[in-house]
Amino acid sequence: MKRLVIFVMLFGLFGAVQAQEMSNRVKQFVALDAPAFALTNATVIDGTGAAARTGQTVLVENGRISEVGSSVTIPSGFQRIDATGKTVIPGLIGIHNHTFYTTSQRRIQLDETAPMLYLASGVTTIRTTGSYAPYSEIELKQAIRAGQRVGPDMFITGPYLTGGEGYTYMTRVRGAEDARRVVKYWAEEGVDWFKAYTMISREELKAAIEEAHAHGLKVTGHLCSVSFREAVELGIDNLEHGFFTNTDYDSDKPLDECPSDFRESLIDVDLKSPEIQATFKTMIDAGVEMTSTLAVYEMYVPNRPPLEQRVLDAMSGEVQKEYLQTRSSIAEQNSAMWPQLFAKSQEFERAFVAAGGLLAAGVDPTGYGGALPGYGDQRNFELLIEAGFNAGEVVQIMSLNGAHVLGIDQNTGSIEAGKAADLVLINGDLNTNPALIRNVELVFRNGLGFDSAALIRAVEGRVGVQ
Ligand SMILES: [Zn+2]
């Protein structure tokens, strides 16, 4: 009965989506397009933070999960997919996932390969946290929703908002009124979020937040000139990168300025100090989530991450050369600071969650190019396990918590009856071996199953070019 009600309620909506003409560009990657199917005998890590459960059946009807459990009767007419020896997790929700990419030599829009790599890696929803090309992202988001392009569902931030001394390729706002003008313009152009950057002043940030909120939109920040606690007091909604960008603990920091050496000073911060808990409490009381982006920072730790052939294969020849050169020079410099800072950041994220904070995650495919779209999200899974979270917690951080940040947790983010069938089928037992996060076979968006291997083949050699 319950299933019937859900079916009737949602049929209109999904009937409309499926009636749209799917382009050949999308169709070539679809491996399963069935109105009703059952994944049987799967290990399910459902995204709610619960531990893995074995012997599960997941029923999907018209793009929605209709039932999950160990004693589910499969109605006639359902296509059966044997998931013995496989794990099913919710589609990952990347909260810091650009469509551009950088190496030490280039900054390039990956309009073609980034969306394909995200989907291939099991990332079914992204927020582009800071945009260099908001119009192309708005266009891409609409094309994906219309079935014309393949990729994750997208939430777009406007251009980076920084201060007068910031990078020239960002919007350098000149005072509060200017911040309001820019936010109003992009809100009307259709972006979903804004991201403030390292040189913005408190006054400019406050104005940007007020204007965004007036349009029903939210603001996150990769901050420095404004500290975490200051930003929360100004009304920010989300904070990026965790410990790496937190200037709460630098007592000599001039207001509204970003000290060039603040990262070195983080090494001396005592994570057991009340100051740390004060940051957490300020954030938690205000409902401000934190985004973990371990994969992008890991590449500054000498000889990390382990060199993966598939990462090199995805890159164009030039990009591969640039990446390997920077990687070797970091290994030669052999920084003593980075291994410590990285471990401390992992500890900071654990402590935030232990204090009751909501942690989400994203790849941030920037830096010198070692964290590719999607592949870096998968690396985050291992790095959060390394930080001390268990598999159930990590899946939650990377799915339901991201959905919460985006305000879509009623619709997606966990494997529960009534939610969209955004699912990842992984070959092997992810619960006992985090490296298996790479063994994605099928990625479902609203029940439509995409062939991960085919998507990966299609991007080979193109990352850094298209
Ligand atoms: Zn970023």
Properties at a glance:
single chain; 466 residues; alpha/beta; TIM Barrel; 2 domains; nine-stranded mixed sheet; 17 helices; binds zinc ion
How is this fold's topology laid out?
Elements: H1 2-19, H2 24-27, E1 30-32, E2 36-44, E3 53-61, E4 64-69, E5 79-82, E6 86-90, E7 92-94, E8 100-102, E9 107-109, H3 113-120, E10 123-128, H4 134-145, E11 153-156, E12 161-162, E13 171-172, H5 176-189, E14 193-196, H6 202-214, E15 218-221, H7 228-234, E16 238-240, H8 262-266, H9 274-285, E17 289-292, H10 294-298, H11 309-314, H12 317-333, H13 337-354, E18 359-361, H14 375-387, H15 391-398, H16 400-406, E19 423-427, E20 440-445, E21 448-451, H17 452-459
Parallel strand pairs: 2-5, 2-6, 7-10, 10-11, 12-13, 14-15, 15-16, 16-17, 17-18
Antiparallel strand pairs: 1-21, 2-3, 3-4, 6-19, 8-9, 19-20, 20-21
Task: Describe the protein.
β2 (36-44) and β3 form a beta hairpin. The chain has 466 residues and is an alpha/beta fold. The strands form five sheets. Strands 1, 2, 3, 4, 5, 6, 19, 20 and 21 form a nine-stranded mixed β-sheet that branches. Strands 14-15-16-17-18 form a five-stranded parallel β-sheet, sandwiched between helices. Strands 7-10-11 form a three-stranded parallel β-sheet, with helices on both faces. Mean pLDDT is 95; it is low at 1-19. It folds into two domains: 2-89 and 414-459, Roll (Urease, subunit C, domain 1); 92-406, TIM Barrel (Alpha-Beta Barrel), CATH 3.20.20. The protein is built from 17 helices and 21 strands. The protein is globular and about 70 Å long. α3 packs antiparallel against α17 and α5 runs parallel beside α6 (202-214). Bound molecules: zinc ion (ZN). Zinc ion is lined by residues 96, 98, 129-130, 364, 366.
